[in-house]
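Working notes for the structural subgroup meeting. M.R. asked for a predicted model of this chain before we commit to crystallization trials. I am recording the input and output together here so anyone reviewing the notebook later can reproduce the run.

Input as submitted:
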Amino acid sequence: MKKRVIAACAFAFVTGCMKQPPPPDPAITAKHDIQLLFERWKTAFEAKDVNGVMAMYAPGATLTAYDVVPPLQFKGADEYRKDYSSFFAQFDGPIHVDLPDMHIEAGTGAAFAYGVERLTGKLKDGTPVDMWLRYTEGLKYMNHQWRIVHEHISVPVDLTTGKARTDLKP
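Returned structure, recorded in token form:
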């Protein structure tokens, strides 16, 4: 009997040691992957690399974006690619963007990110740009990677004048 107890304890010890760690929490993995996606976007944005920027967006007609510039909405990746190209062409020299307070909520197939971003640079006419914008991103897990399917970029508007308030800071 004593040998059976020892054998059972040894078996339990050995099999307990061979247990695999629990799989990572999908939400934590998703948040990490999305943070990396935005880090790659920031690098591409500051390099004015349209292809690198667009790599984070859903291809084709899946994407809908609301930017701070007309038109009212951009439908599809091709249309939004043109917006980025014309945006980058307005700047002389480097552009910098900071996302100091990104918040990410993620599930297994859908996620959203939001916060404020600071954009600095100099336009080709010499006008300095230093403004804060608000962003909200809707992401979907597609073909084993996270892609933005909806983007909303905005600035506050003074309703009495109808003018954008790009002078506000957090």
